[in-house]
Amino acid sequence: MKPFPQDLILETIDLKSKPLADFDGKVLLIVNTASECGFTGQYQGLVQLYKAYHQQEFSVLGFPCDQFGHQEPNSNVQIQQFCQSTYQVDFPMFSKTEVNGSDTHPLFVWLKEAAPGVMGTQRIKWNFTKFLVSRDRTRVHRYASTTTPEQIANELELELQS
Question: Of the residues 13, 28, 37, 111, which is catalytic?
Answer without folding.
Answer: 37
